[in-house]
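Hi all, long-time lurker, first post. I run a small reading group and we've been trying to get comfortable going from sequence to structure in the token notation. Rather than ask abstract questions, I figured I'd post a concrete chain and ask someone more experienced to write out its structure so we can walk through it together at our next meeting. Sequence below, copied exactly:
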Amino acid sequence: SSMSSMSSARVEGARGGLVPRLDLEVKAKALARDARRGNVDSTVVDARVTARALAGGTHGALGLHSVGRRADAYRTLKIEHAAMGECDERELVRDVLFACQGIDGEFIKFSVAEQSYVIAPNVNISVGRRNLIKCLTEVGWLFKKVKKALGDDGAAGVSMENGEGSTRQAFRAALQRELADYYKLIAVLEAQAQVPIVAYLSDQQHKAATNGDSYLTLRRLFVWLAEPLKTLRTLAVMVDATYNKRGGAALSAMYKISRHGDPASTALVRRILSASAAPLLGMIQRWTVSGELEDPCREFFVAVDYSIHDNDLWRRKYTFDEDMLPPFMTREQAQSVLRLGKSINFLRRCCDDATWSVERADILNAVEKAGGLQFENPEGLEVLIAEGKARVDTAVRRVLFDRYKLGEHCKALKRYLLLGQGDLHECLMDLIGPSLNQPANTLSAFKLAGTLEQAVRSSSAQTDSSEFLDRLRVRLMAHLNEEVGWDVFTLEYTLTPPLTTIFTEHAMSKYLRVFNFLWRLKRVEHALCSTWQTMKPTVTHVLSRDAVNGATGGILADMLRRCHSLRGEMHNFMSNFQYYVMFEILETSWAEFEQAMEESKDLDAIIASHDVFLDTVVQKALLGSKSQLVLQTLYSLFEVMMSFREFADELYDLATEVVAKKAAARARIAEREKNQQWGTMVGEDSTAEDFLDKDAVHDMKRRLSDLAALYSRQVDGFLNLLPLQTHVDVQFLLFRLDFSEYYASKGVGPGDVAMLT
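-- Answer (accepted) --
Happy to help. Here is the structure in token form:
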């Protein structure tokens, strides 16, 4: 009963306060008139301060917290603001809500010059309200920025030429979903702006409050917009970060923003990032499973050049664009995705094979079991890549090795171009040698091709399959008029797609360089062997015995011995060098290549192992760019040996001519003795001096000495260049060439080989 009496007393007191409040209104109006006339005294100012204090509730300790008294103070302060010409708060709230929707109000408008919302200059607003409005209109400025990103392509920072792309469309859709809650809040606030303030008033007081004050004030609006302000700030940062970006680049920019200390901001960004990444994940799945790429806006990290022919599909048609790499993938994963799509297109376009298509369902089922391909599920992407590699790469190996016989073609290249089929090249050298001594412009490729077929039938290569032999052809390189056949002759092994993906023109040019080098090496070795057949020890002994008569004959016999000794030195050099090339380089590198081919799981690994094999052979065989000086020295050494071959033939012809003349003289003497005609003619004496041209013998002696000295200088230069080579195997070639320290004892080469290591 006491509680009800107190409550009724409070109500009666509130009703009794209606008359004083009306008096305050009358007094406020009078006060406004006096203020305009300048008749305001200090007591009036004190009353005004008291009204502000009542409205602010700063004197609560004095018992001024009564609802009725505070309402009276608000109304008095409102009348005071009206008297001073200050804008009504309800109108300011209305304009702030307009600004939050990107719309200009009556008093608050957007300034393009200042890029912010500003208050009209003729509006009278207190400093406190101005600062509050400035904070509130930040929401409108942020909303305007985000809304602009949802507009046309130019406003979103995407070129009209390239289009916006599916990733950016998904980003806009995610922004639109996030703004849906903001739109709902603005609608609620607009409705609240029409709701009057609620107070414990009588019916007449409630009616008066309804006609005047509203529930939503600037301060309450600041509280309502605190959370949307935080959200819009994050969205605006994402809009700025993704400006003029697309695809993986835009996703990477979003991912950097997600690394935030605020859990709410992180969740917001990752929610938008997950939605924006969905189109790119769809591209990844279609590319790795079907090899299909629909990317008109170039937002995928796999770029395609449709101007490239399918013959060069693997190396140039598809490339990796690192700028478009999404943040949820590593570079290794992206390279695997690129290779999987290329492998599928390689099988479809180059190999005309569709057996891999049955593996699609298994790959997709494995991804579904892993939870699907989503941004928040990295395991799904890992399963997609792993399953694709296991199936597609296996299909590529099976097609290349079983259907197109990649392994057999590699062995054929080794036999035919790397001189692995030794008897074939020996027969070819014997049969084609006389033709290659002719000028290059007189040679016929068709005639040389017939000689090649004859060499094949004369060697063990005749048992090889015609599938490989038919690819071996004669080729005459571009030449000058003064060149001979040896300078332009070469063999080539023709290959067709898809094997040209591995055996490219660049790779076949390396095979050509190696073959020309080995062919030249074989020619020198063949020439030295031919010299030995001509001047083997028994023949030299017979020539020396029959031609040595007198001083000039002794010089000839000495030249024959020196010539045989020099040929042996040259042959020893060539044998050791040829062993180094054929066994320590080719055979060792081939064994490593075969092992690498067996361990290769995909086409990239096969190509890499083949390239490593060729590069190793080129570098070790002194054919690299850094070995040009030592290679030229070696070729000069070969020229000296070929010059020696010509000299040896001339010396042999001279000796055989002397022997023939002496044999003819002896035959004539025997014939006369038989006819009992005694005596000898001029030139038939036992010294045989008349059978030799002394000047020719001395000239040949000088030439032999010059050849020996030139050979010694060339060997010295070659051996001194070997320690300067970067490849360690080339440096060890010096040990083989001077293993017995023969050259070191003669002062040829760098000296003690053991001291060089």
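A couple of things your group might point at:
The longest strand covers residues 472-476.
The beta strands are 108-111, 116-119, 302-304, 318-320, 472-476, 489-493.
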